[in-house]
Amino acid sequence: MKVLLHDCCAPCGAQVVKELRDEGHEVTVYFYNPNIFPKDEYNLRLAEMKRYCAKTKTPLIVGKYEHDEWSENVRGYEKEPEGGKRCEKCFQKRLAEVAQKSKEENFEAFATTLTISPHKNAEVINSIGHELADFYGLKFIDTVWRKNEGYKKSCQISSEEGFHRQNYCGCEFSIRG
Ligand code: SF4
Q1: Each residue of 71-101: pLDDT tens digit?
Q2: Is any ligand 1 atom within 6 A of the Cβ of residue 86?
């Protein structure tokens, strides 16, 4: 299938791009992460994914960095713990954009790298993905990428490629002090 893959960063994206390609899909990466703060960190994560996509000849679409809009979307949930309501709203915002883009650009399916992280609630992410897919008449690939040693493999690729590895999820509220 022609798949638009939402990617959060190169360490997660490299393994998922490989898996989808191994399954025979035609993959385009969509880097849409207005949650990432500060902008320098956003630029760093994007540069790493650009480097990987160029190396593997994977088409890459770069979304807008609309952090103010993202912040407005999570207003009132700043103090939520990681994994709580703020994260749900964050997944919703990013996946809604990816689903819409998939529809506009005639992709058959979309997916996200987010479920490769052991810290993220795959059930919540997949339920949002399916809801959006139903709304737009698309397919959502709901593989939980961390399974079958997916997370371990992503760490291996990451060290082979020498990727920048962040020590916090992305937004200012997830920076460990
Ligand atoms: S902790 Fe991560 S998933 Fe949760 S709101 Fe922040 S950037 Fe989004």
Answers
A1: 999 999 999 999 999 999 999 999 999 999 9
A2: yes
